[in-house]
Design a protein that fits this description.
2 domains; about 65% helix; about 500 residues; mainly alpha; three-stranded antiparallel sheet
């Protein structure tokens, strides 16, 4: 009977409207019911998590009994690694050069697709499948080593540069990486779109990395300050392939169960916890700000808040209203990690009360801080995977003509330009499935961590009831954002 009375809504899908086959509220109830069933099944079937040393965080997690070491890499593998590092560095330098001196048309410039699609969108998915491969391929790290090497083949000056002048302050933690990440997302949402600005951004970030290595050392900066490295290392915790000591010459590979890296890891600081929450909140905000509901909330001004600031309705003063709109959206973006952190901390406090745990609230918050990462990856894929399909293959044609000058270096300049556009129904159902799968995975990881932290199955189940309610809320909010009609006009 319910299926026979469908309402209508519009879902994300390449900017086109799509009428849902069933009402949105039915999707929401179905997703919530799936989470509840998953919670019961995980509680009955999930084994006890392996104990971890107190205070061990994502960077310090060592090999686990559940991992199966792989054969050590030989000279041929090391040679391939050097080649891959050189190609990654070359791609970075080419992206900077084409952005600054190439064609001004974003669709004919190598840098736009190489950075925004292949690097920013593709690497998170690659990390979630293969582990933290970026730590070995990081082009900024390779560049720092290459620049230090010519001076006496890593002589006195070179080693001093790579060691840095100062130790990384303990109180600094990952706060620089969080600030850089939020700044990068702000640029992506409000200032990107032209190759020239991207080139200047990449050049500035390159100089920042080189200066930071001289100040704090290669190892400290790329472990805690370089935000791409931290972002992709966290995504790498989801992978079935573990890379131990990824920044050392003797790195080891091991197979493990998917998501086991999250079960073993722990946020080592409040900054890392907020960074993980920012990975979730900024993606959700990006999806929200593209909807007609969000734009109308400001420009229709139903509560009169904008009129109280401007002295008139927003459309009566479009110039000042646009400036205020940028500030308004920027404030919401920067505050989004805290908006997700407050209910998260409330759930942790409720879990502490339900289990009567003597563990401090801060320690419990750090224990479960990385359990929401599957949701962050699911949101990322739900919102951006279609862009990877639509524009990812264009990189093959742009390689033949990176500067947009009419070249055809590899014979592919006029090939692979057609975007891959799956049916909109597939996009919608795929997005729903991704979001639901991400939340189910988080339920599983959180329960495994709760078993390790609280020790007994009953205490673990009680502790996860508030977090389950939070995840149900996040699921409904995520599906609601996807179901909203998009707007091409952001009034910026």
């Amino acid at each position: 009977m319910l299926l026979g009375l469908p309402a209508t809504a519009a879902a994300h899908g390449f900017g086109r409207l799509y009428t849902l086959p069933v009402p949105f509220w039915l999707y929401a109830w179905g997703a919530a019911s799936t989470l509840l069933l998953s919670f019961l099944l995980v509680g009955l079937l999930a084994g006890r998590g392996a104990p971890a040393a107190p205070g061990r965080n994502a960077e310090q997690a060592g090999a686990r009994p559940a991992e199966r070491p792989l054969r050590p890499c030989g000279p041929r593998a090391r040679g391939l690694l050097r080649l891959a590092q050189g190609l990654a560095l070359g791609a970075l330098l080419l992206a900077i050069a084409t952005a600054l001196f190439g064609n001004r048309d974003p669709y004919r410039n190598f840098s736009m697709v190489a950075f925004w699609v292949v690097f920013a969108l593709g690497l998170p998915y690659l990390s979630a499948l293969l582990g933290n491969v970026y730590a070995r391929l990081n082009p900024w790290r390779t560049l720092a080593i290459v620049l230090a090497a010519p001076t006496g083949r890593l002589g006195r000056w070179g080693w001093a540069y790579l060691r840095g002048r100062w130790r990384w302050p303990a109180g600094l933690a990952e706060w620089p990486a969080l600030a850089l990440y939020l700044g990068f997302v702000w640029y992506e949402l409000f200032a990107a779109g032209r190759p020239g600005s991207l080139g200047r951004l990449l050049l500035a970030y390159t100089l920042l990395n080189l200066a930071a290595v001289g100040a704090f050392g290669l190892r400290a900066w790329f472990a805690r300050g370089e935000f791409f490295g931290l972002l992709l290392r966290l995504y790498g915790l989801l992978a079935p392939l573990a890379i131990r000591g990824p920044q050392e010459p003797g790195a080891r590979l091991a197979l493990r169960r998917p998501l086991q890296g999250l079960v073993d890891a722990r946020a080592g600081s409040a900054a890392l916890l907020l960074f993980a929450l920012a990975m979730l909140s900024t993606t959700a905000f990006d999806g929200l700000r593209a909807t007609q509901t969000w734009v109308a909330l400001y420009w229709a001004d139903p509560f009169g808040a904008v009129e109280a600031v401007l002295g008139s309705r927003p459309m009566a003063q479009p110039g000042p209203a646009r400036s205020l709109y940028l500030l308004w959206e920027s404030a919401w973006l920067l505050a989004s990690p805290l908006l997700y952190a407050l209910p998260y901390l409330a759930c942790v406090a409720a879990a502490k009360a339900l289990t009567r745990s003597q563990r401090p609230l801060r320690a419990l918050a750090l224990d479960f801080g990385l359990t929401l990462l599957p949701i962050a990856l699911a949101y990322h894929a739900a919102h951006y995977a279609t862009l990877l399909l639509a524009d990812g293959m264009k990189i093959l044609s742009l390689l033949s003509d990176p500067f947009g000058r009419g070249w055809d270096l590899f014979g592919t300049a006029w090939q692979f330009r057609q975007p891959i556009l799956p049916p909109v129904a597939w996009v919608w159902h795929g997005q729903v499935g991704l979001i639901l799968a991400g939340h189910v995975a988080s339920v599983y990881v959180a329960h495994r961590v709760a078993l390790r932290v609280f020790g007994s199955r009953g205490a673990a189940l009680r502790s996860q009831l508030p977090m389950l309610a939070y995840m149900v809320l996040l699921t409904i909010v995520g599906l609601w954002i996807l179901s909203q009609p998009l707007t091409a006009e952001r009034m910026m």
